[in-house]
Amino acid sequence: MDKPTERMENRDYILCECELEPLERFVASLEEKFEAKIAKAPSVCMTMIQAADSVEHQEFYLGEALTTECEVLIHGQRGYGVCLGDEPVRSYCIAFIDALAQLPGADLSYVEAFLAEQESIINKAAQLEYNQIMRTKVDFKLMEEE
Amino acid sequence: MGYVAVKGGTEAIHNASELAEFYRVKDNTTPIDVKQIRTQMRLAIDKVMGEGGIYAPEYAAIALKQAEGDVYEAAFILRAFRTTLQRNYYTEEINTREMFVRRKISASFREIPGGQVLGPTRDYTQRTLDTAKATETTADIHLFLEQVDAKIDPEKLQEINSFGKVIDLLKNEGLLKPIDPSDDRKLVDITREAIKFPAPRSARLQMMARAETGGLMALGYSSQRGFGGVHPTVGELRYGTVPLRVKDASGRLRYIGKIEVTECEMVTGSKPGKKNTPPYFTIGYGLCFGHNETKVICMSTLDSAMRRPELGAPANDQEFVLYHTEGVEAMGFTNHLKLPHYVTFQSILSNTRASVERSKKANLEAEAWRQLASV
What we know:
The complex is a heterodimer.
Chain A: H1 10-17, H2 20-31, E1 36-52, E2 59-74, E3 77-84, H3 88-102, H4 109-134, E4 137-138
Antiparallel strand pairs in A: 1-2, 2-3
Chain B: H1 10-25, H2 34-40, H3 42-52, E1 54-55, H4 57-66, H5 71-82, E2 87-90, E3 100-105, E4 116-117, H6 138-149, H7 167-172, H8 201-209, H9 213-224, E5 232-247, E6 253-271, E7 280-289, H10 293-306, H11 318-324, H12 327-336, H13 342-374
Antiparallel strand pairs in B: 3-5, 5-6, 6-7
Helix pairs in contact in B: 2-4, 3-4, 3-5, 4-5, 8-10, 9-10
């Protein structure tokens, strides 16, 4: 799993990387408290990926990625959900939580608790994978060293 | 060869398409689940995405299923699908230095930042046919996963690191070629404007990123064998995931997910510069979707080769390289040869017959003259 950078919104990282089923369940529970209107239904589009070579920093386009976007209104506050893949439910959930997070005065403690729980699961899985990968670290010896 | 329209055959064409589908399923076997294709045919999916020019693992799996495993056809399907959707976002430039590394190796240096990590590879094993795969069961897979899990002590986990780059070792010593101010560094998008030659490096890298692996390999290999004089060494090859970020409609920078990429920095031999200038190393660059090491090794070899057109080999000629490694176009043109060319061919046939007749007539006349002369 990628280490979130300072620039990256930790919330988006967790919402994009967590399992869909608990996220969907959590947002469904919030819908009972906050009435959401879909301003823009989830739809797929393309995102062009920009890259650059690592020495001369020559920029170029690597290719496109399938993306889903959605917009949700909660009490007039607009939230945007954007994620990779054909993911209508996830993009809706991200937009919902984005709107909620910007809603003045909203109690976000239960959102924070959900995010913390999911982050812990994501990080644990990433750490396990990383440790499996590190089992393949090698220290080649030159023949004359033996 | 020219094109000519034909009409008719609608029913036969429909039936032929139906028959192709019939042959896909006629043995009445269990339908292959798209998730199975995506996970167990990982490298084929990566090729389809890389050559289709679109990162969409699920859709690549569907395309591969639809195309009965033909990677060219699946890439063609994805490339066509790509054109049906609007492009709404551009990512921030991806940074492979923040990659979650699954594999990183160097053939140039034994000791590299963070060490050599072999990752998932078959490079060091014999390619013997594993017939046990024919009878693999779900229970076998579960047992294998349990055994792999058991090799890690969850109480003693290392923290995740990102790693410095091998090329920094050369850069810090001042051994890399300085940027040539005369280089055309313009950023172009070959999906929006037709390529013109000489093409800027951004166009060359973009075209190679979605080129066909076999085509890149053929030309990259020709260069490695000496046709064009690029003698490369893998400075660093890494595979892993990198995060993508875009600005949403409100202008805020948002994380939208991660993609798998393979990257190669190829060090090309030291070359004496002009008089009184020191020799230097140049770096060829390769980057593509998914896990495809052959592709990035050849891409980076050709990136270097195309910067030395004076050497004159096919791999040094950017028009030759870029047009002939564009898999979808090459496949399209090759396969169009099967389509009706009746009028064109009739014209050639008619010309050939007339020419043969003229030749016969000329021979007869020549023979008649010879006979007259001998009388």
